[in-house]
Amino acid sequence: MTTIYGRRANLALDRAFRGMRIAATALDAERARIDVITKNIANARTTRVPGSDEPYRREEVAFAPILERAANGRIEFMGVRIDGVLQDDAPFEEVFDPNHPDANDRGVVLYPNVNTMKEMADLVTATRAYEASLTIQENFERMAERALRMAE
């Protein structure tokens, strides 16, 4: 009987901490997203990338779910992971500026395909998502501390 109870207790404990693990994966994913957004903002006016004749190309993080097969055979969501960092293939901004050192023979300078206002909005969204996941983590920690105090 104790082994069945032990398995049930382990299963219950695993489920209790599942939300904490999911929130931890979200923290990692949103941190990567924030890093890429800040890189985009920092390079919004970079007209030439070292080793290339092109301006900086905007990047974005792609997320994918972490799925696991449970003991009962069902597929369960276990968090989010970074699937990759993709380059935005939107066209570069063309500005006529014949005096610019990166101007082509027509006097046109190519600027990155980064819209700073969109990046700032994405940064706010990513920061809020990060804060929400952090709040979830903190709530799980408080719940675990209360449960330990009750068990004393």
Strands in their spatial order, largest beta sheet? 1-2
Count up the domains: 1
Total E-strand runs = 4
Q: What proportion strand? A: 15-25%
How would you sum up the global shape? Answer: elongated
Largest sheet: 2 strands, antiparallel
Number of helices: 2
Q: What number is the mean pLDDT?
A: 89
The helix content is 40-55%
Can you walk through the features of this model?
The chain has 152 residues and is of the alpha+beta class. The chain has one domain. The chain contains two helices and four strands. It has helices at residues 2-42, 116-151, and strands at 59-69, 75-87, 93-96, 108-111. Strand 1 and strand 2 (75-87) form a beta hairpin. Helix 1 runs antiparallel to helix 2. The radius of gyration is 24 Å and the shape is elongated. Mean pLDDT is 89; it is low at 1-5.
Concise structural overview:
This protein is α+β, with helices and mostly antiparallel strands and 152 residues long. The protein has helices at residues 2-42, 116-151; strands spanning 59-69, 75-87, 93-96, 108-111.
Which descriptors apply to this entry?
single chain, 152 residues, alpha+beta, two-stranded antiparallel sheet, two-stranded antiparallel ribbon, disordered N terminus
Per-chain topology:
Elements: H1 2-42, E1 59-69, E2 75-87, E3 93-96, E4 108-111, H2 116-151
Antiparallel strand pairs: 1-2, 3-4
Helix pairs in contact: 1-2
